[in-house]
Amino acid sequence: MTRKTLLSFAFIFLSNCAGLKLAEPLKPKEGDWATFGRTSSRINATNEIVAPPLQLAWEHDITSAMGYGSPIVIDSTVFVANLRGELYGINARTGKRLGWVTVGEAIQGSPVIDGDVAYMAAANTRESLIAFDLLQGKVLWKQEFGDIEVTPLLYRGKLYFGNTAGVFFCVDRINGETEWKYKLPENTKRKGIRSTATAYDSVVIFGTEDGSMYALDAVNGSERWSYDTGSPIFAAPAVNERVVYCGNMDGNLYALNAASGAVVWKFNAGSSLYATPSFSGGLLLVGTTGGKMFGVKLTDGTKAWATDLNSVVNSSAVISGDVAYVGTLKKELLAIKVDDGTVVWRQTLQGRVKTSPAIAQGKVIVATDDKMILAFKSMQAK
After folding, report:
1. Alpha-carbon gap, residue 63 to 303, rounded angstroms
2. Nearest residue to 370 (alpha-carbon basis) of 331, 342, 336, 343
3. What is the DSSP string of 183-224?
4. Is the pTM value of this prediction over 0.85?
């Protein structure tokens, strides 16, 4: 038998082994990192303490890089989707693969887990919203919504997301049918929506490529308010204490009243903002493409501190106690003190970090663009 034939058999064997079917229902816990940003308001913080210095607990190859979402941790399972359209389930304690399945084309955002169903949005494909039953190990439905490059928002039993043509949808999670849709007004250049939505009260809020923030009624899709920031928005907004925060490509970070859209304050970070802000106490933390991490006072938008990380920051920092963990394109994972921005720990990685980390199960879980999922635990942990 030739080497080529052996390789062909190996490929067929591995393909036939693909599949993702959980042995028992998921049991959500208080400390889960259940969605991108951890909550539907995208606060990027947890009460779980994972103190530096850290050490590698496990690593897992998912064969392709992730997009701009984050790992998701439910119960004791890590769920990640990659740019090859694959969904992986990994044991959060051991790093052992539970299974994987191809569900579509490139998945830019995070999966959304509701009970034992995973919802994923895909780009470059006709049927771009997929529901996958994790217990039955099969696709429940696929629906056509155009190219989607965001993480869907699961809020009050509905799925919310925008597509790259500038249409925002509310979808029934049971069957994928459209409840309502909102087309960006005067969108003659077909500028799209690449900003993951967040939720506040009965409103869903997102940014657009034309530089506007929109707040829509979650029930009927009517426009509550809009605000033009003047520059494209790719970052997901985040809501904290009735104020929505979001940055744009001009480097301006806006604080807007979540109910009215009125400007509370504006902070200029000096370079583009792709990252969703994170919150701890009275501070907001955000990284920039110029390589700086800022601590900004929530009260008035003034700078509390600035730390030069010497590398582009595309993803959010995630906060555990008095420490924030953030990855960079310089192939580093860093721990920064929330109160003054001091770097207290750093780890060189093999790949760049474009996705936001997650914190759960006593670990900081991060994806790199060399196809690896890495889990770090505190050296103080047993």
Report:
1. 41
2. 331
3. EPTT-TT-----S--EEETTEEEEE-TTSEEEEEETTT--EE
4. yes
